[in-house]
Amino acid sequence: MTTNTPGGVRTLGTLRAADGKGIVRLEDRFDTDLDDLWSALTDPDRLARWLGEVDGDLRLGGEFRAHYFASGWEGIGRVEVCEPPHRLLILTKSPDEPDGVIEATLTGDGDQTILVIEDRGLPLQQIAAYGAGDQVHIEDLAAYLAGRDRCDARARWQELHPAYRQLAADVL
Question: How many domains does the chain have?
């Protein structure tokens, strides 16, 4: 889902709450097939080109350490569901943030693939910040797949954050 908010900022996400926690859902379409997008999301060498450093066991039940470039997030994750090339669900833990759940669902559509990411378990008061940050990651993925460099994460986050604050107003 793509939303154009007042001010002309294109947002990929929607925000909602469940059980007192925030959920960011982003959806985008990529000009690549399922297997290539799955590889970009799960191969540590490819992740290092757009998301961050990921070390460990990325198989079902495996644990890994990660450091994301754009957001600076550092923590550990555990692979809870791994159904190549359609679904990946990981649990995350970080000393500075609440435990979270990130689920990626991929659907082929001709020569393209639709990616839906849900980031769950977020503090409601910070859901706009997470929404903007998650979109920066998705845009970095798109840039990588198109052969471009990652964006200036801080500048892009600052551009996106007001639009996500508007979306968050309906959730809070």
Answer: 1
What CATH number is attached to the domain comprising 110?
Answer: 3.30.530.20
Residue 161 φ/ψ, nearest 5 degrees: -55, -45
Per the structure block, which two tokens stand in for 17? 């709450």
Domain-embedded: residue 4 = no
**β-bridge partners, 78:** 63, 91
The answer as to whether 19 is a domain residue is no
Range list of β-strands (E), 19-144? 21-30, 52-56, 63-68, 74-83, 87-94, 97-109, 112-122
pTM above 0.90, yes or no: yes
The per-residue pLDDT for range 45-94, each reduced to its tens digit, is 999 999 999 999 989 999 999 999 988 899 999 999 999 999 999 999 99
Q: How many helices (H) and strands (E) does the chain have?
A: 4, 10
> What CA–CA distance (Å, rounded) separates 64 from 59?
10
